Amino acid sequence: MNTLHVVAALGRRSILQTFRRPQLVAPLIIFPTLLLAIQSAGAGKAIDLPGFPPVDSFLDFLLAGAMIQSAMFGGNAAGIALAVDIEMGFTDRLLATPISRFAIVAGRLAGTAVLGALTAVWFLAIGLIAGVQIEEGVPGALLILLLVTLAALAFGSLGAALALRTGSASIVQGAFPLVFVILFLSTAFFPENLLVEPARTIAEYNPLSFIVDAARDPVISSFSISDLLEGLAGIALLGGIGVALSSQALKRRIKVG
Amino acid sequence: MPAIEVVNLQRAFSDQVLAVAGIDIEVQAGEIYAFLGPNGAGKTTTVRMLTTLLRPTGGSARVAGYDVVAEAAAVRRSIGVALQEAALDPLMTGEELIRLQATLHGLDRAEGRRRSDALLRRVGLTKAAKRRVGTYSGGMKRRLDLASALVHEPAVLFLDEPTTGLDPVSRKAIWEEVTKLNDEGATVFLTTQYLEEADQLADRVGIISDGRIVAEGTPEDLKAEVGKPRLELALAEGSPSACTAVLERFGKLLPAKDGTLVIEVETGAAAIAPVVRALDEAGILVESLDLLEPSLDDVFVEKTGQHLEGAEPGADGEAAEPVEEPA
Question: Ramachandran region of residue A211, left (φ > 0), alpha (ψ -120 to 50) or beta?
């Protein structure tokens, strides 16, 4: 049995499922785009604050945050979709076939990663149309694409862990507001040095800040290997936790039935 | 080698409730075995253990020659499973679902497409193949579920309440398909709460109550165990005593409600013609004559002291009519 073939087929289903369910598409594209438009237009003067990093516009600063926000929503949507599969018995249909148990989660995550890449392309496109200049050019854009895809994968693994642990779409959906809390306590929408305590200290250690900063660097300044490594470490940390918890929850679910 | 061999199979849940309390089953290849019982009797728990979706907490089970715990992957390759309530993704089309199922069973794309087309044709869903499953009626969903369970040509087919919630026409279509599959050599293990379904389809029936098998055998043998067929007559004209004298030649007279006479007949339907002829010769006019055969519900009552959920007490083997979901 070709596991990659199975993962690809389940990933394809996951992508189709997202595009066929408007309530899953909206958080990926519409909400972050609207928030990006409102914030960049309404709070554009923020870049004049003393200590704000040198940027051409607030949109330049926010673009990476919007992409990571979308990746987080994508992770939550992946968890909801997996929980719906569990609730309606579709996961049992998969478990009764001879595929690897982990292909079920891997398929879902493959779909989430592809959706992450597509949303990164969307935000890069609307950013360029709105006048954003990516300082590091095409290589910088490709790096952003890679980081957002990997981040989507990491957030997807956390969503999957919650879905497998609870088996309840409403509980996973209930985690949605947490995304905003975590985002606002990071450097996604505002520079760390301009945040007030305790948000500043939390943002300093929030793995999300490292991920957003790594994705922002190629847009607003020159490429920094240390920021990239920190961003990748943040993704690895969250992804590692997600994969470990998913694996544990899947084993428990199979055992308990 | 039996297709399914179950020895003292048990499943306890965390609250120490024994959902399946030590059952033994042997199903031969090519047999249709029906697991009959009310909701909560342990039918689905048993199917989930036999299809490797749930680990037993005691005993052992082999399906298609493989142990359900130690050789779970081999079991999954050998079985087709259609679970209760047809767990189908409403956002997928029928065609996508069967092709996905083919991929999960390791078939390449061309073979998956070929089998998907053939199976959709077989269950009469070719025209609906490109429609989303969410638009299907209950009967169409069950037929699709059955087709997807067949994509890898399994040796053993598990059908968990395949017709629950279907209208009589859709139910009959599923029965015909199951019978056809069995004629083609498939072993079928099905669970049901419908007496008629077990009676019509099964070579053998296991009756389960509170996690234990309380009776097992062919439907005929089980019914014969609890009583013989009876003839019930209502007279139109003639004396009851003359009629009684005639009837006593054919079987034992049983207590009956006013205006009727009941005798036990060994030969069932074969006794009708001779009885009618004898009554006619004696000049007795009969208003009605009914053959009452023991039902599986009678067996259920005999073994458990209660009627099977939905069965009419005294009715000849049919549960309440379910209603098909709207399309």
Answer: alpha
Q: Which superfamily does B4-223 belong to?
A: P-loop containing nucleotide triphosphate hydrolases (3.40.50.300)
Per-range mean pLDDT, top range of A33-42, A173-182, A194-203, B197-206: B197-206
- pLDDT, tens digit (0-9, with 9 covering 90-100), for B54-85: 899 999 999 999 999 999 999 999 999 988 76
d(CA B33, CA B42): 16
Rounded mean pLDDT of B269-295?
Answer: 85
Q: What is the pLDDT of residue B308?
A: 67
* Cβ–Cβ gap A98/B73 under 8 Å: yes
Fold of B228-292: Alpha-Beta Plaits (3.30.70)
Q: How many CB pairs under 8 A join A and B?
A: 67
pLDDT at res. B317: 36
Average pLDDT across chain A, whole number:
87
- The whole model's pTM is what? 0.80
**A120-143 burial, b for 16+ CB within 10 Å, e for fewer?**
bebbbebbeeeebebbbeeebbeb
Buried b (16+ CB within 10 A) or exposed e, B239-268: eeeebeebbeebbeeeeeeeeebbbbbeee
Nearest by Cα to A77 from A104, A111, A102, A106: A111
Q: What is the ipTM of this complex?
A: 0.84
Residue type, B143: R
Q: Which of A2, A86, A91, A93 to mutate to test the interface with B (most CBs of B within 10 A)?
A: A93
A88/B87 touch (CB, cutoff 8 Å), yes or no: yes
The CA distance from B322 to B112, in Å, is 34
Q: Delimit the domains of chain B by residue range.
A: 4-223, 228-292
* Residue of B50, B103, B151, B161 to mutate when probing chain A, most A C-beta within 10 A: B103
Which candidate, B229, B205, B160, places its Cα nearest to that of B296? B205
In the numeric block, which tokens belong to residue A115? 């959706």
Cβ neighbourhood burial of B200 (10 Å; 0-12, 13-18, 19+): middle
Q: Do B92 and A16 touch (CB under 8 A)?
A: yes
Which residues, 6+ apart, have CB-to-CB distance to A235 below 8 Å? A147, A150, A151, A153, A154, A211
Residue A45 above 80 pLDDT? Answer: no
